[in-house]
Amino acid sequence: MIDRPAVDPALFPLDPETVFLNHGSFGSCPLAVLEHQQDIRQRLESQPVQFFQRDLEPMLDEARASLGDFIGVNGDDLVYVANATAGVNTVLRSLDFEPGDELLVSNHEYNACRNAIHYAAEKRGATVVTIEIPFPVDSEEAVVEAVMAQVTDKTRLLLIDHVTSQTGIVLPIKTIIDKLAEHGIDTLVDGAHAPGMIPLDVNSLGATYYTGNCHKWICAPKSSGFLYVRRDRQGAIRPLTISHGANSPRTDRSRFQIEFGWMGTRDPSSSLSVPYAIKYMESLLPGGWPEIMERNRQLALAGRAAIWKTLNTPSPAPDSMIGSLGSIPIADSKLTEPYQPLKYLDHWQKPLIERYNIEVPIMIWPQHPKRLVRISAQVYNELPQYERLAIALKELYDD
């Protein structure tokens, strides 16, 4: 059933007066998971030396093993980082690109990560080549064709979303990775939205590097991202913070784990809470994670249909390319310049939150004055909320 929440919304600390349709940006962590995190913090503060010097490493090992089981990798091949942007930066800063190398990135890539790849290219004298993936898009084949059209004998790396942030589509990552591997090209997958949204088996994808967030669809606390590096590439990847592990004499684990395992004093409670978040969310519905993913997908499909039918716009992507996000092109902005205030992405967000109590992103894409509205679907959402949004948008059209 999608016409009512799958679980009691009170399990999450969200403002009950706000229609929250933007889980995709920052997620929301259930109260029970936050309480678990606080227990870890209390343990840390009660005996910090015991916690950091003797307890932390085996606790992180367990947390990595649990996450590895969930995303389909060996826990020894992944490390916790603050977020997917940090994961992307970690890989790009570690690789020794050369002048003349071409680095591919799509026009759908998250802006922070686009900035990261441009920075890395500029530092090494490499060139960034942008892949123009169409949106609206009518098939996965169109995406694959757009990627392969930019591949040359100078191509060194592809950075690509698994689920695009602005346009909310699930890309055919497996096909793309396989085709690039035939040319000896590595792939860095920005999987910020994938864990907990879609079934994920990173090993079977074959990506050289894969980074993602646990604070979004897994609903873990903030600052719980991860980075997977294929074992044959781990020797080259160094953390953004070089610390004691750089000259550690230890030989009982990989240098990869030694360096990433300690990057200075920080609060590791978010990463250590990931296993609890996975189990807690799984317990919310009888069918566990498969039911959560499918229910959220069906709600996103129904929600975007309610909007495009009300606004009389065509579907921008086939159902097969939708997870728990849905983006719909809306009327061009009537402003002569892009909206500037940082607290809103677009001038329509102000009336949406202040007049209708709806929190939803309206984004400039691909450039001003073109815009999208992007909805998210999580277990606390229900179809009437998207119908309310559709009516609000229609009224803004008519203002």
Give an overview of the whole structure.
The protein has 399 residues and is α/β, with parallel strands linked by helices. The chain has two domains: 9-21 and 287-398, Aspartate Aminotransferase, domain 1; 32-279, Type I PLP-dependent aspartate aminotransferase-like (Major domain) (Aspartate Aminotransferase, domain 2). The protein contains 14 helices and twelve strands. It has helices at residues 23-26, 31-46, 48-71, 84-94, 111-124, 140-148, 173-181, 202-205, 255-261, 269-272, 274-283, 288-311, 349-355, 383-398; strands spanning 19-20, 78-81, 102-106, 127-131, 155-161, 186-191, 209-213, 225-229, 325-330, 358-359, 362-364, 371-376. The strands form three sheets. Strands 2-8-7-6-5-3-4 form a seven-stranded mixed β-sheet, sandwiched between helices. It has a three-stranded antiparallel β-sheet with strand order 9-12-11, with helices on one face. The protein has a two-stranded parallel sheet with strand order 1-10. Helix 4 (84-94) runs parallel beside helix 5 (111-124) and helix 12 runs parallel beside helix 14 (383-398). It is globular and about 70 Å long. The two termini are 34 Å apart. The mean pLDDT is 96.
* Biggest sheet record: 7 strands, mixed
Reported CATH architecture of the largest domain: 3-Layer(aba) Sandwich
Secondary-structure element string:
EHHHEHEHEHEHEHEEHHHHEHEEEH
The first-level CATH class of the largest domain is given as: Alpha Beta
pLDDT averaged residue by residue: 96
Shape verdict: globular
CATH topology tier name of the largest domain: Aspartate Aminotransferase, domain 2
Low-confidence stretches: none
Structural class assignment: alpha/beta
Beta strand %: 5-15%
SS elements, strand count: 12
